[in-house]
């Protein structure tokens, strides 16, 4: 029960209980006992102060079911106790106790008969001081006390009528007239003094009004002058507008004439373009077939089924220089046509680059450790038109940056180990963020409120990579705000995680439960990726890259490994899909080719139909020394500029990779 300190409070409460307002304080039991027996009120006592509970609160919780007595406390006492004791239950130490107002006890207390509380206090004082004074004979119910004290109690002290003028005298009502008569001159002087003070204030206000009137007249003159000047400017603008309108009409006629001439020639140009395109396609097909015949690891089916450009990404276009250590992560901006590129590095910085000029837009220096992952936030752009990135670091934080101002906006610091990977949800426009950490956990965040929604525990070593399952839709409509159902809009979606415990685990987004454990990797799992071409099935295929130098294909439905791709000579750092025009193209090129990057300084292309290497891109041995991340530009802009492309082949998209020596390369 209560400790010795609470017992001491009970003793002090007999003196202090009347110092609070009647509506808040617990009632002095000695005052109640003037007209009641102890057994009649014992069940109404506050267990905190030991007095009769005012506004009684019943402490009702399964923790106290074995206790026979009624557990109540005065509302004000309970609030003070909880504030001073970190919300710990006053009965037994535990959290999350339940408190309910006791209407039955409240009615019983309200019906108790008592004497006037002021008479009670006066009696206590007289017993020690042996004084005689005015008596109050009130005996009634507690619920009637307020009316008695306000309107009829003879003991109640009254303020002097001249208190507004400065007299602070208080006395009983019966003695008020004596005070007024005996201090008549004093009160008169107070009134005169107050009137003089009011006159001074009035004069000061009148002076202030005069000053304001002068300022007002000055402002009126300024407004009139500005109005006249504005009218003159408006007249000039109208004249210029009329002249411009005339010029516009002339230009319209010229433009219409030119449009007509263009339309007249458009059919002829379209036919010429179509013929040229067909000829070019035939030439490329012949080149592809010739190259496939000479390839050490041929994929024969490609030459007959697909019209692809084997030279795509063979040319190095640009180099981004600035990082001084390993580039762990790169990503094109998913909005504005991929105009920007973000990157994270072991030099403790996140950076944003202009893809066209290779210029560095911003350096974000807030982290104190390796920046392992960076992502653009599509949610903040779609909802607020904010260009922002999130960065994850070995300093145990995730930071939120404004690209426009270069300022840090928010820090998520709940992880207790390095944060190695972050990923935005494919649903709800990317409102939710998952993160994998060296503390062996995965966290789910709401980036609108910056709150942690769930913690997924199960891995026994570092969680190095995380991935959301693809959007469950048959289209690529970016506005998928209505796609989700459930508590956070993630019903039916999963998170895939790879760990240094050599396992891959799948988790239910909505419940946070572990669904599947995929075992078979012989090294740390460094990268996982859902197949984006099975979105309507919720993503049934997962690819992984690990320290055993292999890329693996897993079937989620059978929980088995279905393919192994061997060829890398060092650990695999990343696996990615190329961005083809149709995300549902599971029979074409998009669903059959995957890319993997490695510490062996190569990016390898794999044909999953024959489980063989299809092609290889090699980095610079002296300047790169290893490829740690790969990203593709979006194909959407290329499709818009290539409306005649009937094979869903992307013309103009680029590949970007980050190297161990800090350089970022752009290939096309």
UniProtKB/TrEMBL annotation:
It comes from the Eukaryota. The keyword Metal-binding applies. WD repeats lie at residues 320-363, 364-411, 412-455, 491-517, 518-564, 565-616. Residues 131-179 form the TRAF-type domain. Keywords: Coiled coil, Metal-binding, Repeat, WD repeat, Zinc, Zinc-finger. GO terms for molecular function: zinc ion binding. Residues 195-268 form a coiled coil. This is G-protein beta WD-40 repeats containing protein. It comes from Reticulomyxa filosa.
């Amino acid at each position: 029960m209560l400790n010795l300190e609470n017992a001491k409070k009970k003793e002090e409460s007999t003196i202090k209980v009347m110092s609070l307002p009647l509506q808040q304080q617990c009632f002095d039991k000695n005052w109640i006992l003037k007209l009641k027996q102890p057994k009649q009120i014992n069940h109404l006592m506050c267990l905190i102060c030991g007095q009769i509970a005012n506004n009684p609160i019943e402490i009702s919780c399964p923790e106290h079911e074995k206790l026979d007595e009624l557990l109540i406390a005065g509302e004000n006492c309970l609030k003070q106790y909880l504030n001073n004791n970190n919300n710990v239950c006053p009965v037994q130490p535990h959290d999350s106790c339940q408190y309910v107002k006791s209407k039955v006890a409240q009615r019983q207390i309200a019906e108790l008969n008592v004497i006037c509380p002021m008479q009670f206090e006066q009696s206590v004082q007289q017993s020690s001081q042996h004084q005689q004074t005015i008596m109050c004979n009130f005996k009634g119910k507690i619920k009637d006390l307020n009316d008695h004290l306000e309107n009829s109690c003879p003991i109640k002290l009254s303020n002097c009528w001249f208190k507004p003028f400065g007299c602070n005298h208080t006395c009983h009502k019966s003695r008020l007239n004596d005070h007024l008569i005996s201090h008549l001159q004093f009160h008169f002087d107070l009134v005169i003094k107050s009137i003089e003070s009011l006159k001074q204030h009035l004069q000061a206000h009148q002076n202030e009004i005069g000053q304001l009137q002068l300022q007002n007249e000055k402002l009126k003159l300024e407004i009139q002058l500005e109005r006249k000047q504005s009218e003159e400017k408006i007249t000039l603008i109208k004249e210029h507008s009329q002249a411009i309108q005339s010029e516009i009409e002339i230009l319209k006629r010229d433009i219409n004439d030119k449009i007509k001439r263009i339309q007249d020639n458009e059919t002829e140009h379209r036919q010429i373009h179509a013929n040229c395109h067909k000829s070019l396609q035939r030439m490329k097909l012949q080149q592809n077939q010739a190259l496939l015949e000479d390839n050490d690891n041929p994929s024969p089916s490609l030459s007959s089924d697909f019209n692809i450009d084997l030279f795509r990404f063979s040319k190095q276009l640009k180099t981004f220089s600035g990082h001084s250590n390993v580039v762990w992560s790169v990503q094109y901006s998913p909005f504005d046509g991929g105009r920007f590129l973000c990157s994270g590095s072991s030099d403790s910085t996140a950076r944003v680059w202009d893809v066209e000029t290779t210029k560095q837009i911003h350096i974000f220096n807030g982290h104190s450790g390796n920046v392992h992952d960076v992502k653009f936030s599509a949610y903040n752009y779609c909802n607020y038109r904010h260009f922002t990135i999130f960065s994850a670091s070995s300093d145990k934080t995730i930071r939120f940056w404004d690209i426009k101002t270069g300022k840090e906006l928010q820090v998520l610091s709940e992880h207790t180990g390095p944060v190695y990977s972050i990923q935005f949800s494919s649903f709800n426009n990317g409102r939710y963020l998952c993160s994998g950490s060296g503390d062996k956990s995965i966290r789910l965040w709401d980036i609108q409120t910056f709150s942690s929604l769930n913690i997924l525990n199960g891995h026994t070593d570092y969680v190095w990579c995380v991935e959301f399952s693809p959007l469950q839709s048959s289209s690529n409509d970016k506005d998928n705000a209505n796609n989700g159902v459930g508590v956070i809009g993630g019903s039916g979606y999963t998170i895939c995680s790879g760990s240094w415990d050599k396992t891959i685990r799948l988790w239910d987004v909505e419940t946070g439960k572990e669904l599947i454990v995929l075992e078979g990797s012989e090294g740390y799992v460094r990268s996982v990726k859902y197949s984006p071409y099975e979105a309507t099935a919720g993503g049934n295929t997962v690819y992984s890259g690990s320290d055993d130098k292999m890329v693996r294909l897993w079937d989620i439905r059978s929980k088995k490994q279905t393919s192994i791709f061997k060829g890398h000579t060092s650990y695999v750092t990343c696996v990615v899909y190329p961005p083809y025009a149709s995300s549902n193209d599971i029979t074409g090129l998009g669903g059959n080719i995957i890319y993997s990057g490695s510490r062996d300084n190569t990016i390898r292309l794999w044909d999953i139909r024959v489980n063989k290497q299809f092609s290889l891109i090699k980095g610079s041995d002296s300047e790169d020394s290893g490829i740690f991340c790969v990203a593709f530009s979006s194909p959407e802009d290329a499709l818009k500029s290539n409306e005649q492309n009937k094979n869903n082949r992307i013309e103009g998209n680029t590949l970007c990779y980050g190297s161990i020596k800090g350089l970022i390369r752009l290939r096309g």
